[in-house]
Structure formats: structure tokens, C-alpha cells
Write a structure and sequence with these properties.
Layout lengths: L6 H10 L1 H10 L10 H11 L4 H15 L4 H6 L2 H5 L5 H16 L12 H9 L6 H10 L12 H11 L6 H11 L3 H12 L14
Helix pairs in contact: 1-2, 2-12, 3-7, 3-9, 8-9, 10-12
């Protein structure tokens, strides 16, 4: 299952920004996996904070093998110590356990997020321990498939913008200019900016890294 977008979104972005349009043509369709289970997504994004991709994959595999599946029921039944033993910090294990307890008690209505606007989703998610704005935005992209998420807190987005447009720095004011330009399809723009940051277009360099 991949983030869903098509010609409507890419044609709009091409019409708004020539450089991004050229990049979209060069790169072609991007397939970014998404997760439909919101509970699992929140847990998985807490796990993945500030660790390498390979470490994240390893922990995710251990959790699935150890618990059978990562769900409200299995997390609720596990202790903080048991969760921590899958290879995460004790603090992250506490965050995950706290999240499950709030969902189970009804204090946090997870399913209600689907019907709320982006700002409200961020507000609700960041009220949970262990979830900041960037993590909330990644959940909105890679689970909820919100179409207009363009994260100021994402370092790769900053790198991709510098590479594509030749900026040495992207401050908040400049970032907002691009965010407004790409709206209402900021998420799709972000997929391509991420690809650019990862070296998808040969020859583009990060001006910040030049001596």
C-alpha cells in the first residue's frame, strides 16, 4: 500500500513551480509505503525516533515476532519492561505504554482523528507523551495520507529545498512561501523534495555543504 496521488496533484505542482515540475518529470512516480493501522503507526513512529532506519526495522520485527501483532490488546498486556526489551529506550517504552492506556481508557479517542482537520490532529497527537510536531506530521502522511503536509521540522525537506533552489539556508519565512505555493498538495511536493535530498537527481548538490 502506497501513498495515493496522481496526475491531478503532479500537474498542479508543475503549473505552480517550474523547477519542481522538471524534477517531477525526471524522477517519475514515487511509491512511498503507508500504514493503514493508526494505532500501529503511532507506536511505530515513537519507536523510530532518533534511530537509524536499520535499527528501526530490527525493533519493528522483534515487536511483531514477540507480540504476534502490535495492537492495543498486545501492548496493553505487555509491561513497560517487556516492551523495552525489544530494543528501545525505557522512556520510549513508557511513552508507548502511556499511549495504549489512554486509548484503552477512552481518554484519547484515536479513531476520532480521522474526522479532524490537520491542525487539530497535530494538537491532539502532540498532547501525547513522546510525540512532537514532526512525528505527528509523519503519522499524518504515512498513515492518514493527508494531502497537504509539508514539514518545517524535517531536515531532509530543508536539504531538498536547498538543493533544488540553490538556497544556503531556508528560514521559516522562505519555507512558508514554498508551503503556500505547493498547497493543497504539499505532501506530494514533499515526496519529491525528499527524493531530491536523497540524490534522485544527478548533479544537484547541497549549497550548505559547499566550502
Amino acid at each position: 500500500m502506497y501513498f495515493e496521488y496522481g496526475e491531478k496533484e503532479t500537474n498542479y505542482l508543475k503549473s505552480k513551480d517550474k523547477r519542481l515540475g522538471e524534477a517531477i518529470e525526471k524522477i517519475g512516480p514515487i511509491k512511498r509505503p503507508v500504514e493503514s493501522d493508526l494505532f500501529f503507526s503511532v507506536v511505530d513512529h515513537i519507536v523510530g525516533q532518533q534511530i537509524s532506519t536499520s535499527a528501526h526495522v530490527t525493533v519493528r520485527k522483534r515487536m511483531k515476532e514477540g507480540l504476534g501483532q502490535v495492537s492495543l490488546e498486545t501492548i496493553s498486556a505487555a509491561s513497560v519492561e517487556e516492551i523495552q526489551k525489544f530494543g528501545i529506550t525505557f522512556r520510549k517504552a513508557e511513552y508507548i505504554k502511556n499511549f495504549a492506556e489512554k486509548v484503552k481508557s477512552g481518554e484519547f479517542d484515536l479513531n476520532a482523528l480521522w474526522g479532524k482537520g490537520d491542525d487539530e490532529v497535530i494538537k491532539e497527537l502532540t498532547a501525547l507523551k513522546g510525540i512532537g510536531p514532526w512525528t505527528a506530521e509523519m503519522i499524518m502522511i504515512f498513515c492518514m495520507q493527508r494531502p497537504d503536509v509539508f514539514s518545517f521540522g524535517d531536515l531532509a525537506i530543508h536539504r531538498g529545498l536547498r538543493m533544488l533552489y540553490g538556497h544556503k539556508e531556508v528560514d521559516r519565512k522562505l519555507f512558508k512561501k514554498y508551503k503556500k505555493r505547493f498547497s493543497p498538495y504539499g505532501t506530494v511536493a514533499g515526496l519529491y523534495i525528499w527524493a531530491i535530498a536523497g540524490g534522485a537527481i544527478e548533479g544537484l548538490q547541497d549549497p550548505k555543504s559547499k566550502n
